[in-house]
Amino acid sequence: MGKDLLIKTLKHEKTDGVPWVPFAGVHAGKLKGYTAEEVLKDADKLFESLMEVKKIYAPDGMPIMFDLQVEAEILGCDLLWAKDNPPSVKSHPCSGEKSIPCNCKIPTADSGRIPMIVDVMKRMKAAVGEEVALYGLICGPFTLASHLRGSEIFMDMIKDPAYVKELVEFCGEVACKLSEIYIEAGMDVIAVVDPLVSQISPKHFESMLSDSFKATFDFIREKGALSSFFVCGNATRQIKVMCDTNPDSISVDENVNLHDSKLVTDPYNITIGGNIPLTTTMLHGNQQDNMKCVIDLMDSLDHHNLIISPGCDMPYDTPIENTVAVAQAVKRTDDARKMIENYESVEEDIDISIPDYKDRDKVLIELFLLDPEQCAACTYMLNSVVDIYDEIKEMADYVVYKYTIKEDIARTKKMGISNLPTMCVNGEVKWVSIIPSKEEFINEIKKYIKKK
To answer: CA-to-CA distance for 438 and 135, rounded, in angstroms?
Structure first.
C-alpha cells in the first residue's frame, strides 16, 4: 500500500485499493499550532507539520507545500499574508502596460522561498520517501500569467490573444524550471495547479494555453516524474481539453461530477482524483458525513485510475477527526460502510432572506465564492468587480458570500446555485465559473438599469 499503491495508480496499473492523498497545505500547520504564514516561511515548522500529517492521516501521497504564490512572489508580485490561508497576490507587475518578464527572471534554485521548500523536500524524502509518494506543487502557467497581468488578462484573451499566448509560454518555462528543481529534490509527482483554467472556455484553452501545458507535462515525463493537472471550480467542460495535454492524472473539486468526468478521462487512460467537499463536508460536517461522502464516491466509481482526495487545499480549521474519518473510509471501506449504514445527514435549518431586488435603488451584484482569500478563481472573479467599481458605484452595489460560512452556504443553496464561483445580477445567475470582460459586465448591469 502507501507509496506503491499511488505510483501504480498514476501509472495506470491494476491495484487492490484506492490511494488516499490529503491536500493538507496550511492545515498541516494547524496540527502543530502554527499559522499559515509560519508554516509557509519556516522550514523547521513546515517539516514538523508535514510529519504530523504523515502520522495522523496515514497518506499514500502528500504535498510538501500548497502555495500558488511562490513563483509570483519571485517574479515581482507583492503578497498579502494571512494567519489561516496561503498568501494572496495584491500587485501585478504586468498590469497597465503589457509586458513579458525577461528570461533572466525565470526562478533558480536560489530564488525566493525555493531554498526553504527544497530543504523540506529533501528532509521529507529522507524521512518518509520510501513510504509516501511526495508531491511538488507548482503554479500553473495560466494562473501565474494572471498573477502577473491581473484581471486584465481576461480582456486580453479577446483583444490580444497573441500577447496572452506569449505570456503563458513564459509562465510555462517557469513551470518547467520549478518542476526540474523539485524533481531533483526527490519529488515523485509534480502537480500543476491552475484554478483559473475553469474560468475560461475550452476554445480559449486550446488556442492560447494548450501548448504550454502539454510542454510542461512532457517535460515532467522526460525528467522521470509523474504529473497531475489540478484545477478548481466547475471545470466540467474543460476535462477533455485538459486530457489532450497528456498529464498522468487530473484532480478536480466538488464543482465537478467525478463519475461523469471519469467517463471522459478513462478513454485517455488518465487517472482522476477528488473531490470531497471542502467546506460543507470536511470543515462543517461530522465524521459520519465525511465517511458517507467517501463511501458514496467509491460506490459510484470504477476504482481503476482513481484517487480519493479533498477537492483542493484543505481549510486551515478542518477538524482532525473529520480527516481521520476520510482516511478510515478509504482504507477500511467495508468497516466504514457498516458504521454509517443507518446514518442520514441532517441539514442545519438557517433562516435566510432574499433581497427585494425590484425595490432597490441600485442594481445588486452578488458574488457566491468558495473563499476569495484562498481560491484564485474566486479572487479574480471578485477583482473583476472591485477593479472597476469606481465606474459602476453610482448604479450598482456588490456583496460577497463565502462558502466557508454556514449562513452563506445556506444562502447559496436557497438561491439554487450549484457551482462556485458564481456571479448574480439582481438575483439572476449570469456567470458561473467564467469571469466576464469589463465591457460584458458593465453592459449587463446597464440592462437592469433600463428596466427601472
So the answer is: 37
Phi, psi of 282 (to 5 degrees): -70, -45
Three-state DSSP state, 398: strand
Evaluate if residue 166 carries a pLDDT over 50: yes
Q: Which phi-psi region, left, alpha or beta, contains residue 186 (left: φ > 0; alpha: ψ -120 to 50)?
A: left
Q: Are 61 and 133 in contact (CB under 8 A)?
A: yes
pLDDT in tens, 29-56: 999 999 999 999 999 999 999 999 999 9
Residue 230's DSSP bridge partners are 193, 251
In the structure grid, which three cell numbers stand for residue 338, read together? 457498516
**Would you say the C-alpha torsion 260, 261, 264, 268 has a positive or negative sign?**
negative
pTM: predicted TM-score of the whole model, two decimal places: 0.90
Burial class for 349, CB neighbours closer than 10 Å (0-12, 13-18, 19+): exposed
Q: What is the pLDDT of residues 103-126, one digit of tens each?
A: 888 999 999 999 999 999 999 999
What's the mean pLDDT in 71-93?
Answer: 95
> CB neighbours of 414 closer than 8 A, spacing ≥ 6?
352, 354
Query: Is-contact 287 322, C-beta < 8 A?
Result: yes
User: What whole-number distance in Å separates Cα of residue 60 and Cα of residue 54?
Assistant: 9
In one-letter notation, the amino acid at residue 382 is L
Residue 335 to residues 104, 126, 272, Cα–Cα distance (Å): 56, 33, 25
Cell numbers at 315, concatenated: 481549510
User: In the block, which residue shows the cell 435566510?
Assistant: 352
Task: Tell me if 139 sits within 8 A of 71, measured CB to CB.
Answer: yes
Q: What domains does the chain contain, in order, with CATH numbers?
A: 3-339 (3.20.20.210), 357-450 (3.40.30.10)
Cα angle 389-395-399, degrees, rounded to a multiple of 5? 55
Query: What is the distance in angstroms between the CA of the first residue and the CA of the last residue of the chain?
Result: 64
Q: In terms of DSSP H, where are the helices of 317-398?
A: 320-331, 333-339, 376-386, 389-392
* Residue range 300-357, pLDDT digits in tens: 999 999 999 999 999 999 999 999 999 999 999 999 999 999 898 877 789 999 999 9
Q: For residue 450, what pLDDT is reported?
A: 55
**Mean pLDDT of the region 366-388:** 87
